[in-house]
Write a structure and sequence with these properties.
Strands 3-2-1-4-5-6 form a 6-stranded parallel β-sheet, with helices on both faces. α1 packs across α7 (163-176), α4 crosses α5 (107-117) and α4 crosses α6 (133-144). With 198 residues, the protein is α/β, with parallel strands linked by helices. The protein is built from 7 helices and 6 strands, in the order βαβααββααβαβα.
Length: 198
């Protein structure tokens, strides 16, 4: 008897700036009926409170299940727990480095390590600028291992009118990486303004 991979995704939110991306991702996944397993790091919680009007409890309630950041006995720390993969959004450079070097002292890098060893999809929404050599080396190392490094870089061809528009478009592109295609935001259709007067 075989079992299909469940519509289940691990979501990590770290202390990098941009926690609204992770929150919006959870909201969208919930609307899509995807089971979410949230790991909110200690500094992710601190940044969330500083940057948004959400409470930690409100964000936890968006997920199907949540785990303490140091819970090494969590279901997501085992490869036998079937998932579509994991996304860390936003992903701090500290977390990126821990994942790149297999340092699983806390649950986010441990769960990412499991996703890598099981050859599942790992997406890292790294948040830092500018990058220095160590950042780039860690990103290259993880890319070679099969991870997808996808910084939340805004697009402007859809003429965003608000920060929400920018966040939504980025999250839509992140969902695409897991085969979760939505029509909530405008996509490039190849049509450009005529450019009269050029």
């Amino acid at each position: 008897m075989t079992q299909a991979t469940p519509s289940r995704l691990i979501v990590g939110i770290t202390g990098a700036s941009g926690t609204i991306y992770g929150i919006r991702l959870l909201e969208r996944l919930r609307a899509l009926g995807v089971e979410t397993h949230l790991i909110l790091s200690r500094w992710g919680a601190r940044t969330l409170i500083h940057e948004t009007s959400y409470t930690v409890e409100q964000v936890r309630q968006l997920a199907t299940r949540t785990y303490a950041p140091a819970d090494q006995g969590a279901a997501v720390s085992s490869g036998s727990f079937l998932t579509m993969g994991m996304i860390v959004l936003p992903c701090s450079m500290r977390t990126l480095g821990a994942i790149a070097h297999g340092v699983g002292e806390t649950l986010i890098p441990r769960a990412a390590d499991v996703v890598l060893k099981e050859r599942r999809r790992l997406v890292l929404g790294v948040r830092e600028a500018p990058f220095h050599e160590i950042h780039l080396e860690n990103m290259l190392k993880l890319t070679r291992m099969g991870a997808i490094v996808s910084p939340p870089v805004p697009a402007f061809y859809n003429r965003p009118r608000s920060i929400d528009d920018l966040v939504d478009h980025t999250v839509t592109r992140m969902l695409d990486l897991f085969g979760l295609h939505t029509t909530d935001t405008a996509r490039w259709d190849g049509e450009m303004d005529s450019g009269e007067g050029l």
